[in-house]
Design brief:
Blueprint (H helix, E strand, L loop, with lengths): L3 E9 L4 E4 L4 E8 L1 E6 L2 E6 L3 E4 L5 E5 L5 E8 L9 H6 L2 E2 L2 H11 L7 H19 L12 H13 L7 H8 L3 H12 L3 H18 L4 H7 L5 H12 L3 H5 L1
Antiparallel strand pairs: 1-8, 2-7, 3-6, 3-8, 4-5, 4-7, 6-9
Helix pairs in contact: 2-3, 4-6, 4-7, 7-9
GO molecular function: DNA-binding transcription factor activity; sequence-specific DNA binding
Protein name: AraC-type DNA-binding protein
Keywords: DNA-binding, Transcription, Transcription regulation
Length: 248
């Protein structure tokens, strides 16, 4: 998926990582316990409630800071998301105290399954934008810029691709826009994220097909959902009932 090379969830009690490196940025949140680690010969700690960002190709290890172990979720971000020139600042300050950022990362982990790629891409781009702000020591953010023309072009593209869908990076390339700016411009103009708009259009189409007597599995395939369970999850969230009950 665009921006994410790998996702890893783990619960360790006695495992200790030796010194090693990754060729990606490592974005870590702790759900339980705490981790002690050395980064560039300095000791650090990853704690519940914090965000930890480790730069590529800088040696680090890791071990539990408590006898009860730790539970963690990790995203390995590809090099296109963050400028390598920011690596030194990440080495100096890998721990980030930002509850909103942590919540954004938590939500991203919840949409990494098949069928929700547009939402995941949108979330990772906004997370990367916030990480860049921390690394550049930009305290406070400027008001988002309104870009009505771009937002309407994005809506037209989504309307053309209701079933086929479109990745955020593909849309950004077609519309000559930065992915994060594209997501923000759409939200400012329409009060809804691109992935939410696309899902609502798909659910509307699914409702019509269900009322026409089409079986749910065929409706899922015909409206761009990954499978019937994917359709059911989003249909119930938006409509308030399952496709089967709605059709009846």
């Amino acid at each position: 998926m665009g921006g994410i090379a790998e996702a890893f969830h783990a619960h360790f009690t006695d495992h200790a990582y030796p010194m090693h490196v990754h060729d990606t940025w490592t974005l870590l949140i702790i759900d339980e316990g705490a981790v002690r680690y050395d980064l560039d010969r300095h000791e650090h700690g990853a704690l519940d409630g914090m965000v930890t960002l480790l730069p590529p190709l800088v040696a680090h290890d890791g071990r539990s800071a408590t006898p009860h172990g730790f539970r963690k979720r990790v995203l390995y971000l590809d090099a296109t998301l963050l400028d390598g020139a920011l690596a030194g600042r990440a080495v100096d300050s890998p721990e980030i105290a930002d509850p909103l950022l942590r919540q954004q990362i938590h939500r991203l982990h919840g949409v990494l399954g098949p069928g929700d790629e547009l939402e995941a891409e949108s979330r990772v781009e906004l997370i990367a934008e916030r990480l860049r702000g921390h690394l550049r020591r930009e305290h406070g953010t400027a008001a988002p810029e309104r870009d009505r023309r771009l937002a309407h072009r994005m809506r037209d593209l989504l309307d053309e691709r209701i079933t086929a869908g479109v990745s955020l990076r593909e849309a950004a390339a077609l519309l000559y826009a930065h992915p994060a700016h594209l997501v923000r411009a759409f939200g400012i103009e329409f009060g809804i994220a691109p992935h939410q708009y696309l899902l609502s259009r798909r659910v509307d189409r699914a409702r019509r097909m269900l009322l026409a007597g089409r079986p749910a599995h065929a409706v899922a395939a015909g409206t761009g959902f990954h499978d019937q369970s994917h359709l059911t999850r989003h249909f119930k969230r938006i409509v308030g009932t399952t496709p089967a009950r709605y059709a009846a």
